[in-house]
Amino acid sequence: MTMRFVMIGGFLGAGKTTTIGRLAALYQAQGLKVGIVTNDQATDLVDTHTLRNQGFDVGEVAGACFCCHFNELTATTSKLSKEHYPDVIIAEPVGSCTDLVATVIQPLKHLHQNEFEVAPYGVILKPSHGRRILRGETNAGFSPKAAYIFEKQLEEADFLILNRIDELSTDQIEELESLLAEKHPDIPVIKISAKTGAGMQQLIEQFDLQGEYGNRILELDYDIYAAGEAELGWLNSSLKVTADVAFDLDTLLLDIIERMRIQLDEIDGETAHLKTIGVGDAAHAVANLISSDTPAQVSLASKSQLKEANIIVNARVAIAPEVLTELVHTCVCQAVEAIAGEVRFGETQSFRPGRPVPTHRYQSS
Fold it and tell me: Which CATH number fits domain 233-351: 3.40.50.150, 3.30.70.330, 3.30.70.360, 3.30.70.1060?
């Protein structure tokens, strides 16, 4: 029996994880078993912990994108299959990756056709950066090389997902639809809010379509692609916070992100995504920031008072990794000092992503 393979692409901070959580719950409501595969350039991914804490069966491919760790992707899906017998696999690639049709979907269709039935490939548009990049603004937040990745992600989609419509005005939605129609007139657009659930039924219907999908193979300059990825400082850090007096977990996480936002603004560090999860005493919360011109927010509230919590910070910012490490550690220490607590840092991984070297790359479908 084959598993339905659903992959949801999109730039860092587009809302992939929240969308996947909603989508997985919808599949489960239909009586289907779901397995999820997350992906990151390093271990300690907030998204993995978030989805597991929601009760989903999650495997993780760490250390490189799906395209470069294709065999790890298929091994992870195989493990999920043997342990949980999923009907559907939902895969979330690294947000800075593109060329996934040629390097993931086509290899699955040609080499693993007896294991997977590949769904249409959907890519989420991140409105905050998307509006600036699609307008062709010279100050779009990222360099032309990073914007190149963003644009290529849209180009290879079978359909586009305009997320966060609950945060946009009618005029803003219409402008984005117009920009997408101009740039990609042959690619349909689904409007959703993963936060409120609006449009999710239409999204699942789009993923359920049968036919020949995943054939939009890109013409891609890997030198520009690699340079665009390398502009991002990438950090995953784990730590433990303790205090004699109970602290509000949601407030602490938001304070960490807000302090980072302020300091990054002072040095013109364009944020692709900041995200932190705190877990303790059967509670978990998530706070994040998706761009330099949007507010920090608690995306998953715990409403819990704790005396200790394990916290993971993920940061993707267009600054040097060593600067990012110092900034994150400083902000965490300041936020913990404000609650009269103590912090003990565990592992911190901070680097620039290396050049993508796909396991497979199909030139045609």
Answer: 3.30.70.360
